[in-house]
Amino acid sequence: MLNIEPREVAATVRTRLFGYPEVILYDTVAGGAGYCRMLVDRHSMRDLLRKAVESLDCQAGCTHACRTCLQDYDNQLVWEKLDRQPVLAWLKRVLMMDQAPNPYARFNASPVDADEGTPLLFQELDRSNHVVVVAPTLCTIRQQDPGAEGFLSTAPLVLARRLAAWLASGSGRRAELALAQSPNFTLENSESLALWHELYPRLADGSLKFWTLPRSFDAKGWPRALTNPGKVGSVAWFSTGTVNTPLLEKPLPIPLWRSPGLLADDLTAFRSGWKEFVVVPPVKPADLSLREYRAGQTRDLPNDFAFCRAQGFAIVRIEDPYALDNDWQFRALLSFLEQLAKLWQKWPAKIEIKTRDTGEQNSIIGELQRAVKPHGTVVDVRRVPTKGPNRVDFHDRRIIFQPDEKNARRRVTVLLTGGIDRYLDHKFECGVITHRSL
Ligand SMILES: [Zn+2]
Prior knowledge:
Number of helices: 11
Low-confidence stretches: none
Radius of gyration: 28 Å
Number of strands: 17
Bound molecules: zinc ion
Largest sheet: 8 strands, mixed
Number of domains: 3
C-alpha cells in the first residue's frame, strides 16, 4: 500500500482484557520514518485489514500457508508455524465479512431491536432475583472535570444505586459481577469512594459478589448478562457491541440478542475459571460519610464539619486548583475559614494551600496572609504549574485537617466535589465526602 519494503514496518501482538488481541504496528527505523502515520493518513486500518484478507485468501487454496500466500524468504524460519485460516476467520469477523446473521443461533437467541440495553436489563430484573453480569471493568475512575456539574450523580453512580436498591428491595436477591479487571476502590478519588459507599452494604450482606474472569474469556461468545441462571424463566443477553465499555456505563451494549437462559453444560463452561474477588475496603464504614446537596439546597456547614468542634488543628491543608484563581474564589475561601472558626477551638497554626499557578496571585495571597495573621495563622501557598512542560495534574478538591503536625496519618480528609466556592453557593449541587482517621 505504501510501496515500501515490507521490513520497514513491523508488528507485535498483545492480548487485551476480555480476550481480544491487539496488533501494534511500528516503523522499524529508529525514531520512525513516518510510515505508520502515512498508513492511517492516506488509507485506513479497514483498508489495511482488507488487504490482509486478500493476502490470506490464498489463490492456490492451500491448507495452512504456501509460497503463493504467506511464505517468503524472510519468514523461512517460521514456515512450519504459519496458518492462515484462523487469522483469516478472525479478520473477517473484525470486518464483519461473511458472518452468520445470528452469531448466537446455537443458544436459540434472537436479535433485540433496541437503542439501549440498560432499561431492558432493569425490566428483566423486576422479574428476577439473581443476575450475573459480565464486563471488562466496573467503571472508569475519572479525574473530575472541575467545571462539570453532577459530581455525585454520574452515570456509573446512578447505575450502582439502582443495582444496590434492587438488591435491597427483595429478599434473597443476588447480583454477581464478573470482570476482566478487578475493581479498585480508593481514598484518592471521590467518585470511587461514593461508589464504595453505595456498594459496601450489599457486599457486606453477601448479596453482591465480584468475580475475576480468566484472561481468555471470550466476551462475544458468552452472555453479557444472565438472569435467574439455572432456573425456569432464565434469560440470557448477548452483545456483539463494544467490548471495552465498563459495566456501570453500559451493562448491555447494543446490538443485542436475547435467549432463554443457558443449559447446565453451557452454564458450567461460561463460569469456568472465574475466581471470587474479595474487595479490600478502602475505609471502615464508620469512618466514611457522604452528603449530597441538590442545587438550591441550604448547606449545613456546622454538621458537615462537626468534627472541627472543640478541636484544634496544627495544619489545615487545602488542595484545590482554583482556590486562589480570582477574587470570588478568594472571598469564598475566607468566608469558609470564618465559618469554621465558629467551630474549632483555635485557628490552625498553619494553612497550606496547593493551587494552580495563574501567575497573578501575589496580591490575593498577600491579602489572605494579612486576613489570618491576627489569629496567629501562617499561610503557605504552593503554586503548581498546570500548563507547560512541568505541569502537574491535580483535580480532586480536598481539605485535610491534621491535629498533629508530625503525624500525617491522623487526619480528617474532606473531599468537596465542587470546591469551596460551590459548597458555599447554594445555586450549585455539591457533594461532601468525609473520611476520618483520628
Ligand atoms: Zn497459500
